[in-house]
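The records we work with from here on pair a chain with its fold. Taken together, the tokens spell out the fold as the letters spell out the chain. To see the layout at work, look at the sequence and tokens printed below.
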Amino acid sequence: MKVKFEAQLWAWDARRMDTWVFVTLPVDESEDIRDLTGSVKRGFGSLRVRVSIGGTTWKTSIFPGSGGGPYVLPVKGPVRKAESLDVGDTAAVTVELLDV
């Protein structure tokens, strides 16, 4: 399953010493992912994915949002630097589920 969407980068401020930056997957696609992967069990409910933003592709995990909300995708610093992205910018994202 592949999901293509545009989303704004946002900072998770729960840890003051670290800067974690994410994008949120669309609600409908997150529900489709839950339906497809209901039996997959990994730490923190994570799912392995291949992600592309601009010319950068990497493997990582998506995580369920708090309270069963949409999945969130961490966007690491080297990707943000390579694609000239910062918190508040909008990125075109492709997420492909692995191991499903």
Summary: The helical segments are 27-37, 77-82. Residues 2-97 form a domain with the Elongation Factor Tu (Ef-tu); domain 3 fold (CATH 2.40.30.100). Strands lie at 2-8, 10-12, 20-24, 47-53, 56-62, 72-74, 90-97.
